[in-house]
Amino acid sequence: MATLTLPPFPTSARQDAVDLYKAFKGFGCDKSAVINILAHRDSTQRALIQQEYRSMYSEDLTNRIKSELSGHLEEAVLLWLPDPATRDAMILKQALSGDRIDLTAATEIICSRTPSQIQTIKQIYHGRYHAYLEHDVTRHTSGDHQKLLLSYIGVVRYEGPEVDPAMVARDAKDLYKAGEKRIGTDENTFIHIFTGRSSAHLASVSASYKHSHKRSLTKAVKSETSGLFELGLLTILRCAENPAKYFAKVLHKAMKGLGTNDTTLIRVVVTRAEMDMQYIKAEYHKKHHKSLVEAIHSETSGHYRTFLESLVGSH
């Protein structure tokens, strides 16, 4: 369930474009007006606003936002503007190019998306950047982590709820034999099963593994693997079992301790607000006995705080 709140009446993309232009005009930008409009429009509405703004003022709304806003607020608003698949492609391009390669962000986006979402992202990535996602992943990754990501991008998996109990039991057994039963780890078996099975199947494998071996598959992955390869496997597994719980964990990690990882905070809030943020909020509260809104409020300030809180919703 999304947490995005829309006005109770139909909005006009043309009027929104006019109101945004007014907010940018003159000395200083009316940031509150910008937030009130953009933080309460869905993906389709935001696309129409951008079209209207371009046709009326012969200027890209993104370019105007870059010149009017700054810091974390600018980063968050620019990431919020596109549709989800384009946004994911943008995050991946940024994570896999330039001076600051962010393989954690790239791994999160790839390993938490459904097969059909990944196919769309690949098409947009190629159309937008004239490069293949697989090539950029290959260029910046290595070893088992690289094998895992390339296999996850390349394999078309079943997305339905049905599972084959015999195959589930076999996979659980194979994972045990590939990891905890032996000295060393057969990483290829982990890659083969984690990237070739549906989410429903993998969740069932996890339950079967715990039932048979009295130890969670998550703990097995942690003890048998490390680094970015471990992160990829855990992301696939946790998103198969409970994506909201996974993202609640990522958000908590981004805000705990000294300082906040604002890039991660922005990425998760913006990418999940139109998806499952209501469930993420529930999981966050269940685990930390504190609302996600309270946590964001204490870690952010100013218009940046207002924007994120608008996306997450107060309840």
TrEMBL record:
<dbReference type="GO" id="GO:0009409">
    <property type="term" value="P:response to cold"/>
</dbReference>
<dbReference type="GO" id="GO:0009414">
    <property type="term" value="P:response to water deprivation"/>
</dbReference>
<comment type="similarity">
    <text>Belongs to the annexin family.</text>
</comment>
<dbReference type="GO" id="GO:0005737">
    <property type="term" value="C:cytoplasm"/>
</dbReference>
<dbReference type="GO" id="GO:0005886">
    <property type="term" value="C:plasma membrane"/>
</dbReference>
<dbReference type="InterPro" id="IPR018252">
    <property type="entry name" value="Annexin_repeat_CS"/>
</dbReference>
<dbReference type="InterPro" id="IPR001464">
    <property type="entry name" value="Annexin"/>
</dbReference>
<dbReference type="GO" id="GO:0001786">
    <property type="term" value="F:phosphatidylserine binding"/>
</dbReference>
<protein>
    <recommendedName>
        <fullName>Annexin</fullName>
    </recommendedName>
</protein>
<keyword id="KW-0041">Annexin</keyword>
<keyword id="KW-0677">Repeat</keyword>
<dbReference type="InterPro" id="IPR037104">
    <property type="entry name" value="Annexin_sf"/>
</dbReference>
<dbReference type="GO" id="GO:0005544">
    <property type="term" value="F:calcium-dependent phospholipid binding"/>
</dbReference>
<dbReference type="GO" id="GO:0005509">
    <property type="term" value="F:calcium ion binding"/>
</dbReference>
<keyword id="KW-0111">Calcium/phospholipid-binding</keyword>
<dbReference type="GO" id="GO:0009408">
    <property type="term" value="P:response to heat"/>
</dbReference>
<dbReference type="Pfam" id="PF00191">
    <property type="entry name" value="Annexin"/>
</dbReference>
<dbReference type="InterPro" id="IPR018502">
    <property type="entry name" value="Annexin_repeat"/>
</dbReference>
<keyword id="KW-0479">Metal-binding</keyword>
<keyword id="KW-0106">Calcium</keyword>
<dbReference type="GO" id="GO:0009651">
    <property type="term" value="P:response to salt stress"/>
</dbReference>
